[in-house]
Amino acid sequence: MSSHSATTTSTIPSLEESLVQSLPKTVYYIPNFISSAEEAQLLREIVSQPKPKWTILTHRRLQTHPSALTKNNVLLAAPLPPWLESIVPRMQQLKIWDNAPHKKPNHVLINEYNPGEGIMPHEDGGAYFGCVATVSLGASIVLDLYSKHTNADSGESGEAEAGAQKSTRFPKWRILQEPRSLLITTHDMYTDHLHGIQNITVDEDLNETTVANWTLLGDKEVFSTGRYERQTRTSLTYRDVIKVSNVGKLFGGRK
Ligand SMILES: O=C(O)CCC(=O)C(=O)O
Ligand SMILES: [Fe+2]
């Protein structure tokens, strides 16, 4: 009976036990939120999307489901594809969407990072209800967190930086996201902080003092050397877009 736990639905830990206590409010980290079979299925769906679904960016590529927002940050009403919707009820069990305008996510960005790729520090902003739920697929990666208001003192300078990281900001905290994990970012952490992923090939210096969610990790052994060689990592970021418009209305009622 060893490895026959095919479904994990009944074993999600509570939000309380998933709180990342060392961070400003509020971040939750849940390892193994999905099973390996679900992870494989999601990755199959992602790679089988038609080529034009991908937006190629300098340091990653991106899919937007069901579609990109309009210039005014409006989502044209459409359901999420069923393969992305499949894990939404499990998120709803955690009650993280209870205060959201639509009570569940209606938009998913899919980011794929090869080794050496990343995303500049940014905030996700006011188009969305202030909660993002990130499912990681394929490999681990470090997410850096920054205070929104620069304080010039932090961090050593010294390290010669290759690439275009112009703002010399240093991450204040780091979160290690394992494959199949769920990361929930909400409240002040959503509104008052920036997050980013460095364009590097190895995440280094990983240990219980440098990784905010160390005690919550599913498998610390993987990081026992303190180093993690990046592999392709894909993330699904689930959000609730506040403004939704019916296409019919939009085109029918033109003023
Ligand atoms: O890949 C991630 O975990 C972060 C993605 C992200 O920050 C975004 O799409 O806004
Ligand atoms: Fe983001």
Describe this structure in words.
This protein is of the alpha+beta class and 255 residues long. It has a single domain, classed as Sandwich (Jelly Rolls), CATH 2.60.120. The chain has helices at 36-47, 82-85, 88-93, 187-191, 247-252; strands at 27-30, 55-57, 60-65, 74-76, 107-113, 119-122, 131-137, 141-147, 173-177, 182-186, 193-197, 202-203, 228-229, 233-239, 243-245. The strands form four sheets. A seven-stranded antiparallel β-sheet has the order 1-10-7-14-5-3-2. It has a four-stranded antiparallel β-sheet with strand order 6-11-8-9. A hairpin with a 2-residue loop joins strand 2 (55-57) and strand 3 (60-65). The N and C termini lie far apart (65 Å). Mean pLDDT is 89; it is low at 1-9 and 152-167. The chain binds 2-oxoglutaric acid and fe (ii) ion (FE2).
Element-level helix/strand string: EHEEEHHEEEEEEHEEEEEH
Strand content: 25-35%
Number of strand elements: 15
Number of helices: 5
* Secondary structure category: alpha+beta
**CATH level 4 superfamily:** Alpha-ketoglutarate-dependent dioxygenase AlkB-like
Structural domain count: 1
Low-confidence stretches at least 5 residues in length (pLDDT < 50)?
1-9, 152-167
**Shape type:** globular
Distance between the termini: 65 Å
Helix content: 10-25%
CATH fold name:
Jelly Rolls
What Rg, in angstroms, do the CA atoms define?
19 Å
| Sheet of most strands | 7 strands, antiparallel
The strand order across the widest sheet is: 1-10-7-14-5-3-2
User: Which CATH architecture is right?
Assistant: Sandwich
What is the CATH first-level class name?
Mainly Beta
The kinds of small molecule bound in this structure are:
2-oxoglutaric acid, fe (ii) ion
